[in-house]
Sequence to fold (81 residues):
Amino acid sequence: MTDQHLEDLIVHIVTPLVDHPDDIRVIREETDQKIALRLSVHKSDTGKVIGKQGRTAKAIRTAVFAAGVQSSKKVQFEIFD
Fold:
C-alpha cells in the first residue's frame, strides 16, 4: 500500500465520524526510515475521532499500521488540533 493509500484510508475511516468532513487534513512527512501521518480535524470533531479513552484513535492507528506493514518504512500516526 502506498503512502497516498494510507492517507486515503485515514480519510475514509474518519469521514463518517465527523460533522465537518471538509476540515479533515492528513499531513504526510516522510524520511528515509519513516512515514509520519498527522490528522487534523475541526476542533469540535477532535473528541469524536479520539473516542472514549482513546479507543477510536487506537483503532484508526491499528488499521493504519496494519496497512503500512508492506512498506519498508515505519509508519507513525498522530491526531492533532
Remarks:
- The longest strand covers residues 34-40.
- The helical segments are 3-14, 46-50, 55-67.
- Residues 1 and 70 are 6 Å apart (CA to CA).
